[in-house]
Amino acid sequence: MTTTRSLRLRRVLGGVATLATLPYVTMKLSWLTGHLVGVTDPALVAGAGMPAMNVATVLLDLCVIALAVALASRAALRLPALPVLLPAWVATGLLVPIALVSLPLTLAAPPGSGIGLAPWVHPMVYGGFTVQAVCLLGSFAAYARERWWGRVTGPGPVPVAARGLLRALSGGGAVTGVLAAGLHVLAGAPSGRAIDLVATGVTAILVLTGVAGTLRLTGGRSGPVAVLGAWTGSAVAFAGGLYGVVVTMGATALGGAGSAAWGLAQVSSLLSGFALAVAGLLALAGSPSGSAGPAAVPVPDRTGVRWPHPAPARTLG
Questions:
Q1: Which long-range contacts (CB under 8 A, 24 or more apart) does 50-58 make?
Q2: What are the tens digits of pLDDT across the range 190-235?
Q3: Distance from CA of residue 153 to its chain's centroid?
Q4: pLDDT for residue 50
Q5: Do residues 255 and 265 touch, judged by C-beta distance below 8 A?
Q6: Is there a contact between 310 and 160 (Cβ–Cβ < 8 Å)?
Q7: Burial (CB count <10 Å: 0-12, 13-18, 19+), residue 239
Q8: Residue 189: Cβ within 10 Å count
Q9: What pTM was computed for the model?
Q10: Which single residue of 69, 239, 242, 308 has CA 20 to 30 Å from 270?
């Protein structure tokens, strides 16, 4: 895809993603100002931690807007890598489960009237997040293809000094990821409800996908499928675990009274997602863009013959 076409696509998708934030942000701002639009039970938003959670979720949507604008700018390809990768990765972890699980389950089995919210709230919220997932992540995919495609398709050797850390991170992330997946399934099983089994089962599959993708990357077998699996699975594990820990510790109605398995699943997911992401980043950063390994640079010896000599590996940028 040419730069002009990619930029045009990113602008269209970014504009739609920005518009999709407006209903949710408007509703949360109304709650913060005392206008409980869509709330049928005021006790739902009366918890000590709810105002802080509402502010935090508004800020997250503002981050979505900022990322969409950044990806659509002409200077996007010159931005530092980390300020682009980190918010896009966290957004992936938060939005993908909503698009794959929350919205379909809400439409298939609408929540009852006893949850304290009007019937239209969940479809509106999850629908908006799903549009954000498609458009924002689509914009990021077009951007990443233009900027980092060489690293995705051409793995190179990881620096010797980083190989021990890479093994520790990938191994630890894999073990905690498998543990988290099992705990997610265990947490959803006692209720016996299909909706809980589907939600926890999909989460477990995504986490295991992250484990498999990262192990392929750290094993020197790169490619779009491995990168997509590692990126999405590690993001879902980290963001889902972080959200679960925050709402539990924040004294909000969202935290509920989860089982011990549920709590351990959140913590292990958080740790696994972080470890897998760092391992995957190290694996990809070890290869120069657009090549399968270090470029050969002719270096003369004493006889004057120029022998190939590997150039230093470049960092991710």
A1: 50/252, 50/253, 52/250, 53/246, 53/247, 53/250, 53/252, 53/254, 54/28, 57/24, 57/28, 58/25, 58/28, 58/29, 58/32
A2: 777 788 889 899 999 999 999 999 999 998 888 899 999 999 999 9
A3: 21
A4: 82
A5: no
A6: no
A7: buried
A8: 14
A9: 0.85
A10: 69
DSSP code string of the chain: --HHHHHHHHHHHHHHHHHHHHHHHHHHHHHHTT--TTBS-GGGG-STTHHHHHHHHHHHHHHHHHHHHHHTSTTGGGS-HHHHHHHHHHHHHHHHHIIIIIHHHHHHS---GGGSB-TTHHHHHHHHHHHHHHHHHHHHHHHHHHHHHHHHH---PPPHHHHHHHHHHHHHHHHHHHHHHHHHHHHHTTT--HHHHHHHHHHHHHHHHHHHHHHHHHTT--SHHHHHHHHHHHHHHHHHHHHHHHHHHTT-TTTTT--HHHHHHHHHHHHHHHHHHHHHHHHHHTS-TTSSSPPEEEEE-TTS-EEEEEPPPPPP-
Q: Which amino acid is at 141?
A: A
Average pLDDT over the chain, rounded to an integer:
85
DSSP 21-50: HHHHHHHHHHHHTT--TTBS-GGGG-STTH
Question: Taking the alpha carbons of 222, 183, 89, 23 in that order, is the dihedral positive or negative?
Answer: positive
Nearest to 102 by CA among 76, 133, 79, 63: 133
Query: What is the number of other CB atoms lying within 10 angstroms of the CB of residue 246?
Result: 18
Distance of CA 150 to the CA centre of its chain: 21
Radius of gyration of the chain (CA): 22
Q: Which residues pair with 262 in a beta bridge?
A: none
User: Which of 232, 214, 109 is closest to 167 using CA atoms?
Assistant: 214
Count of CB atoms within 10 A of residue 165's CB?
13
Contact 96, 142 (CB under 8 A): no
Structure tokens at 46: 């009366």
Residues facing residue 308 across a β-bridge: 298
d(CA 171, CA 226) in angstroms, rounded, equals: 17
